[in-house]
Each structure stands twice: as structure tokens, then as C-alpha cells.
């Protein structure tokens, strides 16, 4: 019974007053200089790829792109021929 919010006697606990609504925290004014300093600080923490990594990532991306283009072309051609054969136009 205690888990359900009741006393061992079976009586309901007294009602609590609703908490007062909280005010949102006061926002600081936007400062472009501070923003740019923080951006620069964050960019210094980035692990930038070196030249060989960029070349490898670019090669993988282009090869994947070509393979997907060929696959989509083949599927598109096959479905077009299949639909034309199905409706015999």
C-alpha cells in the first residue's frame, strides 16, 4: 500500500501544494567577438585529417558514388525494359 502512496492505515497522504513556477535563467546578451573566440577555440580542438587521409576519403567516396550510379542505371534500365515488355508498347 505504501508504494501506491497510501499510509499503512489505507489513508491517502495529504495533498501537497503545487511548486511555484520557475523563472527561466537570464540569458546573456549575444556578443559576436566572444562567439568568434569560442568558435576558434573549438576549431583548434578538431582532429583535422592530413593530406593522405583526405585523398583516401575522397577516393572511397568517388568509387562508392560511381558504383551506386552504375547500380541505379542498371536497375532503372531493367525496370524500364520490364515495364515495356509487360505492357508491349
Walk me through this protein's architecture.
- This protein has 89 residues and is mostly helical.
- Helices cover 56% and strands 0% of the residues.
- It has a domain at 32-89.
- It contains two helices and no strands.
- It starts with 31 loop residues before the first helix and ends with a helix.
- 0% of the residues are buried.
How many H/I helical runs? Answer: 2
Write the element-wise H/E pattern from the N-terminal end onward.
Answer: HH
User: Would you tell me the overall average pLDDT?
Assistant: 87
Report the portion of residues in β strands.
under 5%
Tally of strands = 0
Q: Can you tell me the overall shape?
A: flat
Q: Helicity level, as a percent range?
A: 55-70%
Low-confidence stretches: none
Biggest sheet features: none
**Gyration radius over CA:** 33 Å
Structural class: mainly alpha
Distance between the termini: 76 Å
Amino acid at each position: 500500500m505504501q508504494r501506491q502512496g497510501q499510509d499503512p492505515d489505507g489513508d491517502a497522504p495529504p495533498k501537497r501544494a503545487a511548486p511555484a513556477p520557475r523563472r527561466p535563467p537570464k540569458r546573456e546578451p549575444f556578443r559576436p567577438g566572444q562567439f568568434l573566440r569560442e568558435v576558434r577555440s573549438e576549431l583548434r580542438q578538431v582532429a583535422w585529417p592530413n593530406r593522405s587521409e583526405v585523398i583516401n576519403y575522397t577516393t572511397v567516396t568517388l568509387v562508392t558514388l560511381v558504383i551506386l550510379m552504375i547500380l541505379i542505371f542498371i536497375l532503372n534500365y531493367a525496370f524500364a525494359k520490364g515495364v515495356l515488355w509487360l505492357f508491349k508498347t
